[in-house]
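Design a sequence for this backbone.
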């Protein structure tokens, strides 16, 4: 839904978001890339598998952020949805062993992604 939301917003199209109440762990791609960078710097990690987590948000939350960034955006939000994960993701190991924590808030990630998309379109 994220790509459709952002690209639709920039194209001036109305967007429909289904299952808008499901909680997701949203990791911005630049945070994920930073986690890979940090992992490559650790020569002898205690573990070899890490959960890289971001911010928990619902699709409706992401839509609200994008609507603030693009006034006039029309978003149809369909409530409901089944949980994607039956449990929360725990990123403590990545924090402890790699020093990873998300650098972008949901709002900062949305703004940065929109700017990247705008740059690619010009």
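Sequence:
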């Amino acid at each position: 839904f994220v790509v459709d939301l952002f690209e639709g917003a920039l194209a001036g199209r109305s967007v429909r978001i289904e299952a808008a109440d499901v909680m997701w762990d949203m990791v911005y791609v630049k945070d994920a890339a930073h986690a890979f960078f940090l992992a490559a710097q650790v020569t002898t990690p205690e573990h070899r598998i890490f959960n890289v987590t971001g911010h928990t948000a619902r699709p409706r939350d992401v839509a609200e952020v994008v609507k603030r960034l693009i006034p006039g955006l029309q978003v149809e939000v369909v409530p409901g949805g089944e949980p994607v994960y039956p449990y929360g993701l725990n990123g403590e190991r990545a924090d402890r062993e790699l020093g990873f924590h998300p650098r972008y808030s949901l709002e900062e990630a949305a703004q940065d992604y929109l700017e990247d998309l705008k740059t690619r379109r010009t």
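The mean pLDDT is 92.
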